[in-house]
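To whoever is covering the structure queue this week,

Two jobs came back overnight. Logging them here so there's a record in the thread.

Job A:
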Amino acid sequence: MKKFIKGIAIAALAALTVSALAACGADKQASTGDSSAAQKTETKSADGVITFGTNAEFPPFEFVSAKGGLIDEFDGIDIAIAKNIAESNGKEAKINNMEFDSLLVALQNGQLDAVIAGMTVTDERKETVDFSKPYYTATQVMIVKKDSTIAKASDMADKNIAVIQGYTGETAVKDLGYKSQSFKKGSDAIMELVNGKTDVVVIDKATAQKYIADNPELKVVEDNDAFGDEQYAIAVAKGNTELLNKINEAIDKLIADGTVNELAAKYAVSEE
C-alpha cells in the first residue's frame, strides 16, 4: 500500500477514504479562493502567492470537490499540503489545474511556481526540474473486474491494458514490454474497464482504492515483484533553490508536527 514516509503510519492509511492520485489528467481550472473550476492557464503569480500546478483527476491527492451540490473547488492530500506550505511562508496557495503531461512544461515556462500532483520522482524528470524531499511512497497496482483471471503482472501479456497518459503506470507497463491504451483521465480508463472495453487498468494504489470503493464490481491486484516503490515530491524550476528550500522546510515541519498523518486519516480509503 502507498504509505507516507517518515512518520506516516500504515494504520492511518488503512483508515483512509482517499480519492486517489496517481504517480500520477484534467480539464478544470481554479484558484483556492475562486468558486469557479473552469480551466485556464495563468501566469505565475506575484508576491504573496505561490502558484501550484496540479492535475485534479488523481484522488485522494487532488480532485474537484462538490459542496452544496456544486463543483466549486479543489481538494485532496496534495492540495492541503500546498496550502500548508504557502501558509507557512506567509503566502496564499493558488491552484492551477491542467493535464498531467502539461505540468512540467508550464513550470519550465514560468507559468507555475511549483507542481504538486502525485508526481513520482524519476531520473528523466530530474533532468528538467528540481524535486523537493519526498512526502509519499507509492506503488503501481492493477484494477480488474472481480471475475478476472489476472493475478499477477505477467497475466496482462495478452490483455487490453489501460493506463493514464503521463502517469507512472504508463511507463511501468512499457517497461514490462506490454502495449497499452492511454487515457487522459483515470475515470475514463475505469469506465472502459467497467464497460468491458479493456481488461485491466494500471494505476497508483491509493487512487485504485478510491476507484474500487466507487465501483464494487472491481478489485485491486498487486504484484510487488513487478512494480517497485516510487516517491512523490514537489517539482520546482531547475535552479530555484530559494523556493525549494522553503518547500523542504515546510515538508519537514508538516511531517514532524503530525499534519501529514492528519491528512492521511482525512483523505485515505480503507483497503477492505
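Job B:
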Amino acid sequence: MTTPEPMPTARELLAFYLEAGVDCALSETPVNRLVEEPAAEERPAPKPAPFRTANPAPAPVFAEPTPAPDAAIVSAREIAPQAASLQELRDLLERFDGCALKSTATRLVFADGNPQARIMFVGEAPGRDEDLEGLPFVGRSGKLLDLMMAAIGLDRSTAYIANIIPWRPPGNRDPSPQETQICLPFIRRQIQLVDPDVLVCLGKPSSQAVLDLKDGIMKTRGKWFDYDTGTRKIKAMATFHPAYLLRQPIYKRLTWQDLRAVQKALQAEKTA
C-alpha cells in the first residue's frame, strides 16, 4: 500500500507561487485551492436578493401650452384696451400667457420714470441687467440713455421709459416678428395711458413697430412723424438706440442733433 504524500505546508505553497510568477492575491480572503470544493448539490443555495418594490415613475408635468401666435395676437388686441390705468395694464401683462418669452424671463420689465412725463422713450426689449432688476435701461445702454437725457435737461423723474417687449428674449436674441406683434397692443395702450407730448423710439425695431415705418434707422432718424394715440396726434421721432451707440460711437453726433430737436419740440409744446 502506497503511503500518500504529505500536504505541502503554507511556506512551500508560497515558494511555489513565487516561482510560478504569482506575486499578488486575487481576493482579500486566502483560499486553499488544494482542498476539493463541495459538490454542487452540497453548496448552500444563494440567498435571494431582497424584493424591492419599484418606485412609481413620477407623473409627467406638462407646461401650460402657449397659445398659437395668431391667437395670442388676437387675444392681446382684445385685452390690452381694457386696462384703464398703467397699474391695470401691468396686472394684465402679469397674467398674460400668450407670449412664450414670459416663461424664460426672470420677471416682467414694465417701465421706469414718471407716468406724468411729457416725453416717453420706447426701446425694443430688456437685456440681462433689466431682466434681473425688473426696470428698463439699467445696464450700460441705460447709463448712456441717462447721459443722453441729461444733455437736454431730462432725467427719470421727467421722462417715462418702456420697451415694446416687456420680457427678456433668451440670450438677448432679437425678438421674433410674432413676439413683437403679440406685445405691440400692450405698448400702444401704454403710450395711450401715459399720453406724452413727444414720443422717442430708440432704434430700428422700435421705430418700425411703433411708428409703422419700413425704412431703416439711418433714413428715419431725426425726422418728425405724427403718432395717433387714439385721442390725439403727438410728435414722434426715431433715433439711435443707446446699445447701438456703444458699438458705433461715431453716430453720437447725429444723436445729439436728434436730441436737440426733441428739446426744441418740448419747449415749443410747453409755450403753446
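Note for Job B: The mean pLDDT is 86.

Please reply-all if you pick these up so we don't duplicate work.
Q.
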